[in-house]
Each structure stands twice: as structure tokens, then as C-alpha cells.
Write a structure and sequence with these properties.
The complex is a heterodimer. Chain A is 65% helix and 1% strand. By secondary structure, chain A is mostly helical. Chain A has a two-stranded antiparallel ribbon. In chain A, 42% of the residues are buried. By secondary structure, chain B is mainly α. Chain B has one domain (8-254): Ferritin, core subunit, four-helix bundle (Ferritin). In chain B, 64% of the residues lie in helices and 0% in strands. In chain B, helix 1 (8-29) packs antiparallel against helix 2, helix 5 (102-123) crosses helix 7 and helix 6 packs antiparallel against helix 7. Chain B is globular, with a radius of gyration of 18 Å. The model of chain B has no long low-confidence stretch (mean pLDDT 97). Classes of the chains: A mainly alpha, B mainly alpha. At the A-B interface, helix 2, helix 3, helix 6, helix 11 and helix 12 of A face helix 1, helix 2, helix 3, helix 6 and helix 7 of B.
Chain lengths: 309, 260
């Protein structure tokens, strides 16, 4: 008599693969929840890249030297490129770029709240590179080991470029800090405005993060929000000290192992999330206007392709 | 480093080419984050990057060839880009024409790139090694820019009724400014003679053939006009140019002597 092996459900087999650190590929069976979670996360990431072109793109025509202009154009161009790979990764899960854009345009999908703050001085371009791209790298490097293959591979390339962006941001910040008194004031002012929003980029504290546990079990998320935020603070505080800048946190302290920041004002985060940040309306309106202004171009390209099929 | 021999004529020529690249790049940069589709955000910024690279090399060359000022200072790319006033810029007017909609932007790009391909091809053999060096790289970039503009002019010209109308309008708007590209003045007479500059008369037939072939395939009409606006090479610019420079230069000029 042969022994009866209890049949494992597809969900259990899927989880076995995840637990064995196997990569999931587009044609593999996957639970609907896994697919939905990934589409939501990848789309939100893609939307963040393309909305993120606006605050920095704002300074391209005014960049203070030709070298800085070239670096900034290349960076904004990389963001468009990241948007392209990420929408591509979402399409491997059955999503459609036009539908995802429509979700963004109608407010049904979000993008990172960080891009709802204005870039009012040149130093903001430097601060975004240093802090925002720095925080993005902390969030994204673990995603290169994400269980979903196409996302992990897209993130490998994105992270290489983000790491360049972070270094150029720090270098631009250093130039300002070694510059005139006015330039140094600009740099401090930018740090004052971008510090707390950058910490909020890691999302709510672990005890208030609803999707985290399942994403961890699925190998989509590898570290908790608070762990990643701590890494960022530990890496960034010494950089600020090196620049001779003051981190705008009176409660910041060294506990012998880590830099411990003061309490984050989550009501501000919720306000911006809800749509009432300084630039939420402006960002979305700009994005929708660009899309609508370009409709005739996309229609022409489709009509031409039909005629010349 | 050996000092570059001062050569005022060639310096002005390098400045003309550098200003063409810089001013067109500035116009293309205005498209950042507002292109009709994501692929085009990448492409338009790519064109701008190529042109900025050309501008930096050419302005640097122009500064070297102009030689030191009475204080012994050689003007850098940034001195030339940020600290000259309108009448000192000598780009062709076509480069500064407002971008308008995507149709006009692509019509302008077609007219410029169809000129730059034979221009850089000729200049790759320029007697000025600085200009020849830029040309060797720029000719490949211009060929890509032309290919890109051509593909859009075809799609828009032969796409929908609306795209055809818009592109024809954009083409009609920018077309008169192209004549200036083929003007010859005393400076060009001297530099063509010395083998430094490209002869505009030799560039025009190839330009015309390229443009006419694309427009015919795109079902567009070659505009007819007797209006030939000119003056850019002599520092006489369009009304909008002051605004372009104000945006380009204000931050740099607000912090005299600062390093960025």
C-alpha cells in the first residue's frame, strides 16, 4: 500500500517557493492577492517616478551652470526611464499602462507624498538628490531581492541610477555648503524643509502599517518601515554633520549605537496623503494637463500605425 | 597645456554654433515632464542633452579662441552662457522660436536637424581642430535627431485630420526662419576660404532634398513665403528671447562669483 500524501494547495506550494527564495515569474501561478499587491505597489512606484519629474524639472531651465543643467536633465530623464520599466513590470502582471495612468489621473492610485512639497530654491534640487533619493535607495535596494522576478530586475537597474542621483545630490549640497553665506543658508533651509518629509517616505510606524505583514510573508517586503527609516537616519545624520548643517530635530540623540530621532508628526503625513499637501493639486493638474494636451499626438501615432500596418 | 592661438573669426563662428545648440536645448528643456507620452519625455530630454554637450564644448572653444580679456581672463562656458546679454548672442532665430505645441516643436526639429546633418558632416573636416572634434560626435547625434523628427513628422502629418492641421500650422510658423541658416556674411566668406566653416550654399541642396522628401511623404505642403526674418547672427533677436535668457541666467546672475 502506498502512503497517502496530503495534497498541498496551490497557495501552500506558492508559499513554499517563496520560503525557498525562489523567484516568481509572469507565467507562474500566483495568488490573486499577491498579484494585486504587486500591481498596486509597482504602479505607485511608477507614478512616483513620473510625478517626481515635476519638482526637479522645475529647475532645469534655471540651473545655475551648464554642468548642473546637464546632470539635472539626465536625472529627470532617468526618472522617465524608471517610469517606463516599472509600468512594463506592472504589465507583466496583466495591468495596462493606460489604465494605470487613468488611476493616477483620477486619484484612485497614489504616488509618494514627498513629491507634494514645492521646490522653491536651487538647493531643493540638491536636497532631493541627497535625502529623497537617499531614502528611496534604502527602500528600494531590498526590492532587488523581491520575490517577483521582473520587479526585482527592474529595481536592480533603478537602484544603480538612484545611487548616482544620491551622490550627485550630496556633491551639489557640499558645493553649496562650501560656497557663499547665501548658498549655505539655502542649503540649511532646504534641509529644514526636506528632512521630516524624507523620514515620512518610509511610511507609517510598524504598528500602524496595515499591509506589511502579508508583504513580508510574500517576500515583497524584506525589512519593516521603522528598520529602514533607522538605517536612513543613521546614514544621513553624519553626512549632515560633515556638511556643517543642522538636522532640524531638537530631540535627535545618539544612543551609543544609533541616531534616535524625535517623534514624527504623522498628522502632517496624513494631511498630505489625504490630498491637502502644498502641491497635491498642482502636481496632479499638471500631469493631467500634459496627458490631455498630448492626446492628439498619441491618437495620430495610433492612426498612422493603423494605416501603415 | 599649450595656449590656444587667438583667432577672433573662428571664435565667433564657434560661438554661433554653440549658441544654436544652447538656445535650442533651452527650448527643448521646457518640455520636461509635459511630453505627450513617457517615451517622448525620454527622447526630448535626450535631444537636449546632446545639444547641451555640443554647446559646452563649443562655448569653451569660443572662449579659448577669443583669448584672454584685458584682465588676462579667458571666458568659460558658463561666462558665455550666463553673462552675455541679448545682443551678444548669435544663434539663428530658428533655435529660439517658441516651441508651441508638439507639432511645431517637431517641425522646428526637422528643419534644424536636416541642416545639422550636412553641417556637422562638413565640419568634421574643419581646419579648426576644436570644431572638427565636436562635429565628429555631433554628426551621429544630429542623424538620430533627424530620424526622430522625421518619424514624428510622418506620424503627425499622415495621422489624423487634427494632427495634420496642427503640424502644417507649426511648419508654416517656423519655415520662414530657416532661410537665415543659409545666409553668408563677410565672416563666413573668410572662414570658408580658410577651411574652418562650412559653406552654407553647399548645405542647402541636401537640406532642401531631405526636408521636401519628408514633407511629401507626410502629405504636408511646403510653405511658400517671401518673408525671410533674419538678424540672429548679428544679435537681433525675437521678442521672446529676453524671457528665455532671463530664465536661463537669473539664478547664476543673482549670485555673482558663486560656484555651483
Amino acid at each position: 500500500m502506498t502512503a497517502v500524501v496530503p495534497a498541498r494547495t496551490p497557495e501552500q506550494e506558492f508559499q513554499d517557493r517563496i520560503d525557498a527564495d525562489d523567484r516568481v515569474e509572469p507565467r507562474d501561478w500566483m495568488p490573486d492577492g499577491y498579484r494585486r499587491t504587486l500591481v498596486r505597489q509597482i504602479a505607485q512606484h511608477a507614478h512616483s517616478e513620473i510625478i517626481g519629474m515635476q519638482p526637479e524639472g522645475n529647475w532645469i531651465t534655471r540651473a545655475p551652470s551648464l554642468r548642473r543643467k546637464v546632470i539635472l536633465v539626465a536625472k529627470v530623464q532617468d526618472e522617465a526611464g524608471h517610469g517606463l520599466y516599472l509600468y512594463g513590470a506592472a504589465e507583466t502582471l496583466g495591468a495596462d499602462r493606460d489604465e494605470l495612468l487613468d488611476m493616477l489621473h483620477t486619484g484612485r492610485q497614489k504616488y509618494s507624498t514627498i513629491f507634494n512639497y514645492p521646490t522653491t530654491s536651487w538647493a531643493d534640487v540638491a536636497a532631493i538628490g541627497w535625502l529623497v533619493d537617499g531614502a528611496a535607495i534604502m527602500n528600494q535596494v531590498p526590492l532587488t531581492r523581491c520575490s517577483y522576478g521582473p520587479y526585482a530586475r527592474a529595481m536592480t537597474r533603478v537602484c544603480k541610477e538612484e545611487s548616482f542621483h544620491q551622490r550627485q545630490g550630496f556633491e551639489a549640497m557640499m558645493t553649496l555648503c562650501h560656497g557663499t553665506a547665501t548658498q549655505k543658508r539655502m542649503a540649511q533651509d532646504a534641509l529644514d524643509r526636506w528632512w521630516w518629509p524624507s523620514l515620512m517616505m518610509f511610511g507609517p510606524n510598524d504598528d500602524a502599517s496595515p499591509h506589511s505583514a502579508q508583504s513580508m510573508a510574500w517576500g515583497i517586503k524584506r525589512f519593516s518601515n521603522d528598520e529602514l527609516r533607522q538605517r536612513f537616519v543613521d546614514a544621513t545624520v553624519p553626512q549632515a554633520q560633515f556638511l556643517g548643517l543642522t538636522v532640524p530635530d531638537p530631540d535627535l540623540r545618539w544612543d551609543g549605537k544609533h541616531w534616535i530621532s524625535g517623534a514624527i508628526d504623522w498628522t502632517e503625513f496624513q494631511t498630505v496623503m489625504r490630498g491637502d499637501g502644498p502641491c497635491n493639486r498642482e502636481r496632479l493638474r499638471h500631469r493631467v494637463a500634459a496627458h490631455e494636451d498630448g492626446a492628439w499626438v498619441r491618437e495620430a501615432a495610433a492612426a498612422y500605425a493603423d494605416k501603415h500596418r | 597645456m599649450t595656449a590656444v592661438q587667438t583667432d577672433t573669426d573662428t571664435a565667433v563662428y564657434a560661438l554661433r554654433l554653440g549658441d544654436d545648440a544652447l538656445v535650442l536645448a533651452q527650448r527643448l528643456c521646457e518640455w520636461a515632464a509635459r511630453a505627450p507620452q513617457l517615451e517622448e519625455d525620454v527622447a526630448l530630454l535626450n535631444l537636449a542633452l546632446d545639444l547641451l554637450g555640443q554647446a559646452r564644448s563649443l562655448l569653451t572653444r569660443a572662449g579659448e579662441l577669443a583669448g584672454p580679456d584685458p584682465n588676462g581672463t579667458v571666458r568659460t562656458e558658463d561666462d558665455l552662457a550666463y553673462l552675455r546679454d541679448e545682443p551678444e548672442f548669435c544663434n539663428a532665430l530658428l533655435m529660439e522660436v517658441q516651441s508651441g505645441d508638439f507639432g511645431r516643436t517637431m517641425a522646428r526639429q526637422l528643419l534644424v536637424s536636416a541642416w545639422q546633418v550636412p553641417l556637422w558632416t562638413a565640419l568634421a573636416a574643419s581646419a579648426d581642430e576644436g570644431i572638427a572634434g565636436v562635429a565628429g560626435k555631433a554628426v551621429k547625434e544630429a542623424a538620430y535627431h533627424l530620424d526622430h523628427a522625421r518619424s514624428w513628422v510622418l506620424r503627425l502629418g499622415d495621422g489624423t485630420a487634427e494632427s495634420h492641421r496642427r503640424l502644417q500650422q507649426g511648419l508654416d510658423d517656423v519655415w520662414p526662419y530657416a532661410a537665415e541658416l543659409f545666409e553668408r556674411d563677410a565672416l563666413l566668406d573668410r572662414l570658408v576660404e580658410r577651411g574652418v566653416a562650412a559653406d552654407p550654399a553647399l548645405l542647402e541642396p541636401q537640406w532642401r532634398a531631405t526636408v521636401q522628401a519628408v514633407l511629401a511623404e507626410a502629405t504636408l505642403t511646403v510653405p511658400e513665403t517671401t518673408w525671410r526674418p533674419t538678424g540672429g547672427r548679428r544679435g537681433q533677436h525675437l521678442t521672446g528671447f529676453g524671457y528665455l535668457l532671463a530664465e536661463l541666467q537669473h539664478l547664476h546672475r543673482s549670485h555673482p562669483g558663486a560656484t555651483w
